Amino acid sequence: xxxxxxxxxxxxxxxxxxxxxxxxxxxxxxxxxxxxxxxxxxxxxxxxxxxxxxxxxxxxxxxxxxxxxxxxxxxxxxxxxxxxxxxxxxxxxxxxxxxxxxxxxxxxxxxxxxxxxxxxxxxxxxxxxxxxx
Length: 133
Hints:
This protein is an alpha+beta fold. It is 26% helix and 36% strand. The mean pLDDT is 87.
């Protein structure tokens, strides 16, 4: 009768590494087999009393969203490679509700202020709070 020998730690590690490599190869093969479905082109425009929204997407997957509201205008874009940009325009003459975050001693955390857009732009640049919806 043959005596069973135990595997050493290095043998077990080697076996685990081989299995891991096999799984990685199989996963890569499955990924190559899968075809990414072709994106549909979108061109949507929504016009309401309060806001105008435009959504555009091409077949490659690049997405552009623009909105034009009474107080805030903006643009959001996402490219195929995942790069995301968000641009928000604030009207200087409009009044906005601003909430302090406590980084400035004159703007305590949770304090709510009604300020013009030009003042809020400076506060947002310095990181002293956020626009309250």
